[in-house]
Amino acid sequence: MISILKKEINSFFSSLMGYISIGVFLLITGLFLWVFPDTNVLSFGYASLDSFFGMVPWIFLFLIPAITMRSFSEEIKTGTIELLATRPVTDLQIVLGKYLAALVLVLFSLLPTLLYFYTVYALSGEPGIDTGATWGSYIGVFMLGACFLSIGLFASSLTSNQIVAFIVGVFLCFIFYMGFEYISRLPIFFGGLDNLLQMLGINFHYNSISRGVVDSRDILYFLSLIAAFLLMTKTVLESRKWS
Hints:
This protein is mainly alpha-helical. It is built from twelve helices and no strands.
């Protein structure tokens, strides 16, 4: 698994893909946070990174499927997935190696944004920025990105076409991020069913953890969703052997 992890990380950063992904993420968040008037943190009058944490999930919604779309699709298209399967590694190790490498890329994308936090903290007066809610939001963003990565890998394992993998990945990420919340607003769901549907979505738990209280139920939800999609990805890879 370690060799696959190193191979994928080298693949990200030996080409422009990794640098472009990080650069695009930082450029978009920087423009929205410091330049564009409607979301400019300097225009709010109070120390907060709410606009940043509000836009990151929507950026990840498109950026992460773009990162993961080639993970298995390219291997399937070129036939190297069969070569990879002959190595002394299990399907689960292959999936975890690719997943952890993509997770490192997401982590590298988030680390420079700590400068945003420091800048707002340094510029703010009393009472200053809510550090508890901010760190909770960073945990939420990281867990959300980790969920989107597992979904994107699953989408990539379904097809040899990278564009199809991207579209499926975006669709599934949207469904699990906001889809359940929108569905719960339909008038046919009432008597607690609407709340239950909302709890199935990522946004419910993301907003919960962003308040600064790291609830074990929210962490368990994120970890369960990640594990479910990674196991489904492993099952898809195994099914290709059966066929």
